[in-house]
Amino acid sequence: MAQERTGVATLKSNPITLVGPEIKVGDKAPDFKVNKDLMTQVSLADYAGKVKLISVVPSLDTGVCDAQTRRFNEEAASLGDNVAVLTISVDLPFAQARWCGAAGIDKVITLSDYKTKSFGEAYGVLIKEIQLDMRSIFVIDANDTVQYVEYLGEMTAHPNYEAAVAAVKKLV
Fold first, then answer.
1. Where in the sequence is the active site (predicted)?
2. Has this prediction a pTM greater than 0.90?
3. Domain containing residue 130
4. Is residue 65 flagged as an active site residue?
5. Total domain count, the chain
6. Could you say which residues of the chain have pLDDT below 50?
7. What span, in angstroms and rounded, lies between the C-alpha atoms of 18 and 69?
8. Which among 60, 65, 105, 127 is annotated as catalytic?
């Protein structure tokens, strides 16, 4: 059974349980399998040699998740080709594609954790009670070492965009 962490996060002030380990700076980034579309799975290895900014959102169809993904899409334009900006949620891949088309998102790669919750469990962000991934940010260097982590204490709060982008810029 996967490790569970309670008392570390809330949803609108209600406690939630996160499944999986707490990832720390300096850790080797755990592998994962997420869907690029309904049939195609990708893993950490698909982004080998690149700096990865992983923006985790519960669902693109909510206000904070929408704003977070739009912000990182804007930032991605100035980060260069050696950076992969990934947004991971449990939204179905066709819902992600529809949302990106409607929102004009073209620099962020959206990936779905709907099938196995592999990312959520590996990175300690799977919310046991509602089976969504908790808002969080991970920056992983080209050698797959974690260089920045932000676990949000409240699911409806915004991440520290500036700190995440600064962590990426230090690596490129």
1. 65
2. yes
3. 4-170
4. yes
5. 1
6. none
7. 22
8. 65
